[in-house]
């Protein structure tokens, strides 16, 4: 089996009218050791940045799965490394991370971002994965979400 260079792959895709997209990392600590973004951008038609899963039930405090400041930092990270902004595609989550709080919340501030958690939230009816709810499962919660 022959291994083709990125340039050879790009040329073959161009001949067939296809585009080459590369999925990068949203976490800068991983990106530093895994990707040469400027080099990848030379052959790729677009590069996607999965800017989610920054926080979840693996942590012992609650947090947004895709906080805006961390999403912005991920995109800036790649433009600072020479990738043209027009080649970047922002990947956003259509699901949410959920938590079981360490202490029963009796007010909104006790169920806020940054409060202690003891683990994953209950699984969704359809997704059946603790700590993860599909977008439509979140919507079905009704008045619990503001």
Which terms would index this structure?
17% strand; three-stranded parallel β-sheet; TIM Barrel; alpha/beta; two-stranded antiparallel ribbon; 146 residues
How does this model look, in words?
The protein is an alpha/beta fold. The chain has a single domain, classed as Alpha-Beta Barrel (TIM Barrel), CATH 3.20.20. Helix content is 29%, strand content 17%. The chain has five helices and seven strands, in the order H-E-H-H-E-H-E-E-E-E-E-H. The protein has helices spanning 6-15, 28-34, 37-43, 68-80, 135-139, and strands at 21-23, 46-50, 88-91, 95-97, 99-101, 117-120, 132-134. The strands form three sheets. It has a three-stranded parallel β-sheet, with helices on one face. The longest helix has 13 residues, at 68-80. It is elongated and about 60 Å long. The N and C termini lie far apart (54 Å). The mean pLDDT is 90.
Can you summarize this structure?
With 146 residues, this protein is of the alpha/beta class. Helix content is 29%, strand content 17%.
Radius of gyration: 19 Å
Low-pLDDT runs of 5+ residues are none
- Sheet with most strands: strand arrangement: 1-2-3
Mean pLDDT: 90
Structural class: alpha/beta
Q: For the record, what CATH class applies?
A: Alpha Beta
Assign the CATH architecture.
Answer: Alpha-Beta Barrel
The helix-strand sequence is HEHHEHEEEEEH
Total number of distinct structural domains: 1
Number of H- or I-type helical stretches: 5
What are the SSEs and their pairings?
Layout: H1 6-15, E1 21-23, H2 28-34, H3 37-43, E2 46-50, H4 68-80, E3 88-91, E4 95-97, E5 99-101, E6 117-120, E7 132-134, H5 135-139
Parallel strand pairs: 1-2, 2-3
Antiparallel strand pairs: 4-7, 5-6
